[in-house]
Amino acid sequence: MLKKICLALALFSASVLAGPKVLVETSLGNFTLELNQEQAPTTVENFLRYVDDGSYVNSQFHRVIPGFMAQGGGFDADFNRLRAYGPIQNEASNGLTNDTATIAMARTQDPNSATRQFFINLVDNDFLNYSYSNPGYAVFGKVIDGFEVVQAMGQKPTRSVGGMRDVPQESIIITNIKKID
């Protein structure tokens, strides 16, 4: 009986500590993210603001590099830059690392410049992690279902468009994105 109570409490605790989940539907297939509000509260709040306002819908994964990452959220299907809220403080020192299947914020050389663009790590990218000499890229969640869809992105042929390289030849569009239970 005590074992059953302990197991029930452990399962309850795990479900309470689990962060928000987001279903990302793309033209290539769907995947689910679990966000880490506890360790990346500002970054999760920022990402969810774009989910809630619907502005990730019809945006594209505009930069995909095999053996590295898939980046999206900043441009529509015609490569028009999407409106962004102000930049957020870099939370890369939160203890989360750029491991395979994690999601992190893209930014410029300025560590505190992330707005709406994100990337999903296709492999462990330790060089993107925070350290004393590296401001790093803030991880704020992970793909918990459908990572094979993200991996498939990394297998698609790419091209250059304007000044952008590594653009999938066939657009990979976010057709819907929403919080789920």
TrEMBL record:
<dbReference type="Pfam" id="PF00160">
    <property type="entry name" value="Pro_isomerase"/>
</dbReference>
<feature type="domain" description="PPIase cyclophilin-type">
    <location>
        <begin position="25"/>
        <end position="179"/>
    </location>
</feature>
<feature type="signal peptide">
    <location>
        <begin position="1"/>
        <end position="18"/>
    </location>
</feature>
<comment type="function">
    <text>PPIases accelerate the folding of proteins. It catalyzes the cis-trans isomerization of proline imidic peptide bonds in oligopeptides.</text>
</comment>
<dbReference type="GO" id="GO:0003755">
    <property type="term" value="F:peptidyl-prolyl cis-trans isomerase activity"/>
</dbReference>
<dbReference type="InterPro" id="IPR002130">
    <property type="entry name" value="Cyclophilin-type_PPIase_dom"/>
</dbReference>
<dbReference type="InterPro" id="IPR020892">
    <property type="entry name" value="Cyclophilin-type_PPIase_CS"/>
</dbReference>
<dbReference type="InterPro" id="IPR044665">
    <property type="entry name" value="E_coli_cyclophilin_A-like"/>
</dbReference>
<protein>
    <recommendedName>
        <fullName>Peptidyl-prolyl cis-trans isomerase</fullName>
        <ecNumber>5.2.1.8</ecNumber>
    </recommendedName>
</protein>
<dbReference type="InterPro" id="IPR029000">
    <property type="entry name" value="Cyclophilin-like_dom_sf"/>
</dbReference>
<dbReference type="GO" id="GO:0006457">
    <property type="term" value="P:protein folding"/>
</dbReference>
<keyword id="KW-0732">Signal</keyword>
<keyword id="KW-0697">Rotamase</keyword>
<comment type="similarity">
    <text>Belongs to the cyclophilin-type PPIase family.</text>
</comment>
<keyword id="KW-0413">Isomerase</keyword>
